[in-house]
Every structure is written in structure tokens, then in C-alpha cells.
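YhcN/YlaJ family sporulation lipoprotein, pasting as requested.
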Amino acid sequence: MKKGFGIILLSLVITLAACATDQNNSDSDPLDPKNRNPEMESNTNSPSRDQLGFVRYTQDEFNQDNTSEPKEIHVDREEMADMITRILLQNPDFKEVATLVTDEEALIAFEASDNLSKEMAIDNAEKTAMSVLPGYYTIHASNNRSLIQNIETLHYSVMENEDVDTGPLVQEIVDTMKKDD
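C-alpha cells follow.
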């Protein structure tokens, strides 16, 4: 009887000790909002930084951060153009693609194989751009091969002279693309 009571008592002590260790565990649950660690959120050297994008604010934190002026929203046009072009070129029916992204429009000129109809290729290009760009962008696509050179020339003319008014030049390309439809 004493032996059985001793085993029960020992089991109870071990169980309570295990529970006490769990409660005092210094490793906090990272998903528990009470255990937020702001220092970890801003760690830009973390190898997982490129895997996930995460931001969390309370209304008070947001209001404190926005006391002066609202932050501008930036779209990396070069990155967007590169992404659209690379996605389209993953389709073997697209042989060459040139993409220009302005602050309001995306112009995509391409050469496609005969396996893809003109309408299907234009639709594919426009949907690809829609999936990458914010919804307020106007997207124009054309299989007119000469527009590839026009888009490239427009890009380099702006690179050489930043004071160039791109509006009329972009509109000229857009008008040509609309004629091709």
C-alpha cells in the first residue's frame, strides 16, 4: 500500500513539476499578440526577410508615425516592368517582350509565335500586367514588333535627358497600339 501511494505521489510531483516548468518557460508564444517583439519586426538582416512581408501596427502606433505627413506609396516601375516581361517570357510562345511602366500606364509590345493567336497573346499580356500592377493602371499590349524598338527608344531618351516630356511620346505609342487592335 505504501509502495502504491509512493508511486502515485511521485507521479503527481513529476506532473506538477512539468507543468510548473511549462508556465515559467521563457520562450513566449510568437503568435500571441501580448508577446509582440518590435525589435524582431524591424530586423532587416534576417535571412527570412525575403520570404515573408509582414507589418503590424496598432491605431496608436500608426497615428504616432503619421503625425507629420502621410507616407507616399512608391511603385518600382523598373521592377514591375521586369516582372511582367519575365512572366510573359516563361510562356514559350512569347519570343520577345518589351514593357514600359509609367506612373499610370503599362505598355507591352511583344513578338509571339504563330501557335498563339493575336487576341490570345494580347489578353495574356494584359492579364499578366494586371496581376502585377495596382488596379488603377491602364494597360496596353500589342504584337506590333516595331513598337518594341519604340518603347526601348523612349526609355533611353528619358535616361539621357530627364527633362523630356514623356506624355506625348507615350500617347503616340498607345495610339499605335489601339490602331492594331
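Note for the archive: The domain at 77-180 is CATH 3.30.70 (Alpha-Beta Plaits).
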